[in-house]
Amino acid sequence: MSEKKNLLLKLFLSTLYLSAFTFGGGYVIVTLMRKKFVSEYHWIDENEMLDLVAIAQSAPGAIAVNGAIVVGYKLAGIIGIIVSVTATILPPFIIISIISVFYSFFRENIFVALMLEGMQSGVGAVIASVVFEMAAGVLKERKITLVIIMLISFIVTYFFNINVIYVILVCIGIGLIQTFMRKKVDEK
User: Fold this and answer.
1) Surface-to-core class of residue 103, CB atoms within 10 Å of its CB (0-12 exposed, 13-18 middle, 19+ buried)
2) Considering the entire predicted model, what is its pTM?
3) Engineering a disulfide at 84: which of 19, 65, 72, 156 sits with its beta carbon 3.0 to 4.6 angstroms away?
């Protein structure tokens, strides 16, 4: 098997696995993507993972699919996108299809209801872990600007109920300004 086919198969299986066994939405998958793609396979580094999360959250759509797009493109271009997105959407598509067929049974089953309630606690813990790890990564770099932006973002969303979309748009603007300023300094 050629190296590219092997990479595509590994990409397909890893994103399929992540998608199939991740409950709780896109923020939960971020931790698993980091573990798989950064720590285990070394396909991307820690800073690229932070960029991936920023892109995935900023773009419209599911974070898992957006993350799969970024990783797939980085590893294998357009074919990588197709492979990783297909693997990412396949498990939820199959699961939702099955659930929709048996909806009335699932709705009234006490065991399913209790299982879903228990999963909420686990999802909360995983999301807290993601926030902690991402904040620790930012603090480790000791870039005061990033720390200030992180704190202000938390304060305005938590205490002043500012919609997170506005915070993301402002952060995108700040990132663009910083990029253009660095580019001008590098040209001089």
Assistant:
1) exposed
2) 0.59
3) 72
